[in-house]
UniProtKB/TrEMBL annotation:
Coiled coil: none annotated. Belongs to the DNA photolyase class-1 family. This is CRYD protein. The lineage of its organism: Eukaryota, Metazoa, Chordata, Craniata, Vertebrata. One of its GO terms (biological process) is photoreactive repair. Residues 2-96 form the Cryptochrome/DNA photolyase FAD-binding domain. FAD binds at D3, Y4, D5. The keyword Flavoprotein applies.
Amino acid sequence: KVDYDVCSNYGNWLYSAGIGNDPRDNRKFNMIKQGLDYDGNGDYIRLWVPELQGIKGADVHSPWALSSAALSQAGVTLGETYPEPVVTAPEWSRHISQRPGGSPHPRGRRGPARTPAQHKDRGIDFYFSRKKDV
């Protein structure tokens, strides 16, 4: 069964996109936190994203934050078998850990998210413009 309530769904999508009505300033939807709250072990992600099958536990919510050794062990190559993130929001960092050995924290990972080096100078307009030769 598919839940389809036009008003509720459109309102939630707008709210999640940050353009809905909210009394709090600068509210953003935190995908990492939501993933950890509702899919703490990452089973849903692994079901629908087979490229991340080898990543265990909550680490699957932020594969770009794993060490190269952990990614290699999981059979993931960022930029080849799984894309680099387009954006890493600063708000995500508190949900991403830098634990030794890559062991998952029960409530997610904590520590700074990294921005892909090749994209540091590009604004968000780059990804939505038609011209890609910049």
